[in-house]
Amino acid sequence: MRSETKQRRKKGPILAWIIVGALFVVLVVGGYVISRVLGAVAGRVPEVQEWELFEGPEGFQMAVPKGWTIVTGEVQGVKYNVTVKGGELVYVKVVGSDTMSFLGDAARMSGRPEVKVHEFTTSEFKHSYPGYKESSLQQTTVGGAAAVRAEFTCTNSHLMQKFKMRGLRITALGSQKGWSVIAMCPEQSWDKFRPIVEQMVSSMRLP
């Protein structure tokens, strides 16, 4: 009788540890699956049914997909910024900066100041976005302002996952300030997101 009691006492802690281990595995696997699902949702590009005009200060304008989240604000050294989000990993950010305008004025003797400003600010993007790599620059105009553009890739972290991102970066010098446009999404969604970005960029009015 005493032998059976001792055996039961020995089996009790072992069984408890087995149950704890099983629960831990369930939680880890479940958490991983949930994070993958939420990550996929965050990187999905919503269908665009309608567009609306967004108007910012000093005459800034841009067409945006109706129903997307718009976040605006000011930060130190930046005159104005707006981010249009289709998801946590799908967005277009536009920043108007007096500092960029001053840099452009200082570089005008080069004949292509927007190129110099773009190159000067690239280090900031490399610091902010791990693995940032840019394609060759292309001359363009945005909202009537001289500009350069380049596609890029980088890495972004969200919900304990790392995502390979792809996007477009534009540097433009308006009559009043310099502008930086950065659009990105997970690489596999870029083909769907790109025409939306191009529509937004072509509609911009940059003071």
Structure notes:
With 207 residues, this protein is α+β, with helices and mostly antiparallel strands. It has a single domain (51-202), classed as 3-Layer(aba) Sandwich (Protein Transport Mog1p, Chain A). 38% of the residues lie in helices and 36% in strands. It has four helices and ten strands, in the order H-E-E-E-E-E-H-H-E-E-E-E-E-H. The chain has helices at residues 2-42, 98-106, 113-128, 190-202; strands at 51-55, 61-65, 69-73, 80-87, 90-97, 133-134, 138-142, 145-158, 161-173, 178-186. Strands 3, 4, 5, 6, 7, 8, 9 and 10 form an eight-stranded antiparallel sheet that branches. Strands 1-2 form a two-stranded antiparallel ribbon. Helix 2 (98-106) packs across helix 3 (113-128). The longest helix is centred in the first third of the chain and has 41 residues, at 2-42. The radius of gyration is 25 Å and the shape is globular. The termini are far apart. The relative contact order is 0.15. Residues 20-40 have low confidence and may be disordered.
At CATH level 3, the topology is Protein Transport Mog1p, Chain A
Rg, Cα atoms, Å: 25 Å
User: CATH H-level name... which superfamily?
Assistant: Mog1/PsbP, alpha/beta/alpha sandwich
Which outline best applies?
Answer: globular
What distance lies between the first and last C-alpha atoms, to the nearest angstrom?
91 Å
Strand content: 35-45%
Summed up, the helix count is 4
Biggest beta sheet summary: 8 strands, antiparallel
Tally of DSSP β-strands: 10
CATH class: Alpha Beta
The CATH architecture would be: 3-Layer(aba) Sandwich
Taken together, the total number of domains comes to 1
Which regions contain 5 or more consecutive residues with pLDDT less than 50? 20-40
Helix content: 25-40%
Structural class: alpha+beta
Report the average pLDDT across residues: 80
* SSE sequence, one letter per element: HEEEEEHHEEEEEH
